[in-house]
């Protein structure tokens, strides 16, 4: 167990450093889509510490609680946790989830389906249905749901399947709605301003993976 924890800690530190560099590079390369460009320099300085610390907690907890049946399951679970944490960070800070981060996440989900013995049709249906439903919601809400949220839900469907995606989507919408209402009441957001739902979906998925 001690060796496993040390390996988890080392993996978390490496993933945190590389993840912070990736996020910082994407922030620097896409200034036109940053929602709060004036905060980017300060945010870039804290990314490595923040990601290393949170990933250490996640990875060590995952190992301690034996959340995976074998090494292959564990590798995919840690990969899943890493990307969800990065999405939470970028969407919370700048209301953006980069396509360059969603593509490998979705691709890994497809690779995991046969390797982990998952119900392939169910997961493919979840991805397609999640994309379609949230695309309709984006049209109905006139942009209340962003393109990043649509693609995130589709990728989560590939990872989670229909039942778990429904749980994550409903939980995220409820939590996001409550948070948006509180921001309006406290006048920290005005009606019609952009609101990031992504972190509420990613946090819900993380909690589901850890319980």
UniProtKB/TrEMBL annotation:
Q: Which UniProt keywords apply?
A: Membrane, Transmembrane, Transmembrane helix
Q: Which GO terms describe its biological process?
A: signal peptide processing
InterPro entries cross-referenced by the UniProt entry:
Prepilin_IV_endopep_pep, Prepilin_peptidase/N-MTase
Pfam families named among the record's database cross-references = Peptidase_A24
Stretches that traverse the bilayer: 47-64, 71-89, 101-117, 124-145, 165-185
Can you name a GO cellular component term?
plasma membrane
- Family the UniProt entry places it in: Belongs to the peptidase A24 family.
Name the chain's protein: Prepilin peptidase
Upper lineage is:
Bacteria, Bacillati, Bacillota, Negativicutes, Selenomonadales
């Amino acid at each position: 167990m001690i060796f496993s924890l040390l390996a988890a800690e080392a993996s978390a530190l490496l993933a945190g450093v590389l993840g912070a560099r990736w996020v910082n590079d994407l922030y620097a390369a896409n200034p036109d889509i940053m929602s709060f460009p004036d905060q980017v320099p300060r945010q870039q300085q804290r990314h490595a510490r923040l990601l290393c610390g949170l990933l250490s907690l996640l990875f060590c907890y995952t190992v301690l609680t034996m959340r995976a049946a074998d090494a292959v399951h564990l590798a995919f679970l840690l990969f899943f946790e890493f990307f969800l944490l990065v999405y939470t960070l970028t969407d919370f800070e700048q209301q953006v989830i980069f396509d360059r981060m969603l593509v490998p996440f979705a691709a890994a989900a497809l690779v995991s389906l046969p390797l982990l013995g998952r119900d392939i049709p169910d997961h493919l249906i979840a991805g397609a249905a999640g994309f379609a439903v949230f695309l309709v919601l984006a049209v109905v809400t006139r942009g209340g749901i962003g393109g990043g949220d649509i693609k995130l839900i589709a990728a989560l469907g590939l990872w989670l399947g229909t039942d778990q995606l429904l749980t994550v989507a409903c939980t995220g919408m409820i939590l996001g709605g409550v948070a948006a209402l509180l921001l309006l009441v406290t006048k920290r957001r005005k009606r019609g301003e952009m609101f990031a739902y992504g972190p509420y979906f990613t946090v819900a998925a993380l909690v589901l993976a850890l319980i």
